[in-house]
Specification:
Layout: E1 2-4, H1 14-22, H2 28-34, E2 38-39, E3 57-60, E4 75-79, E5 83-88, H3 105-113, E6 119-120, E7 130-135, H4 138-149, E8 157-162, E9 171-178, E10 187-189, E11 195-205, E12 208-215, H5 222-229
Antiparallel strand pairs: 1-3, 2-3, 4-5, 5-7, 6-7, 8-12, 9-10, 9-11, 11-12
Pfam family, one: PseudoU_synth_2
Domain Pseudouridine synthase RsuA/RluA-like: 82-229
GO biological process, one term: enzyme-directed rRNA pseudouridine synthesis
Length: 237
Amino acid sequence: MRVRLPTGDAWRTVRDHLDARLAAGAGVIDEMLDAGLIVDGTGRPVPRDMAYVPGMFVWFHRELPDEEQVPSPVDVLYRDDHVVVADKPHFLATIPRGSHVAETALARLRRQLGIPTLGAAHRLDRLTAGVVLFTVRPEERGAYQSLFRDKRVTKEYEAVAPYDPALVLPRTVRSRIVKERGVMAAREVEGEPNAVSRIELLEHGHGRARYRLMPRTGQTHQLRVHMSALGVPILGD
């Protein structure tokens, strides 16, 4: 695993930064350093007192933890020489992060399609299912990522929820949403809006309706929270 030391930080030693960043547990980083398992760009072991140099790289072997298998497949919706579009299931992380390494959409697709250069142009939360765009060529990845960063890509969803004849649609919902770490649900609070969604009614009957949902931002559980706030929570939510 390659780690780049951030340019904006000012740690005294490489050891101090890795111990705080990786949170590997008491004494683990020291044991790896003493065993010569962490090396610099020339392959030389990094000593405990090596000075922190912003921008430098260090390498080490990462032991992969046992990961819980997500039974749902990652279905490829479209593929050409430049991109792969796939349907990521619930509970599968988009990219390796934290304890999720092999059981991620990116790792699965690299193995499944035999494309080691595959990379994600954006990501969805682990608990969220949806369409994800992957790039085949590393030199093109930045261009695709900028489309998402600059909000030049639009996302559109459909949902079934109760029908309320008094609810005026279409409308754009703006609010501030927060999600606390370790808490499953997100909620609206007072403050500057950080979540914007466009809600449209497509059809209704028998007390239910089909809605078109277009998030303009990407807060966790944003569409669920906005629909619930309108009094028409998504069916099954």
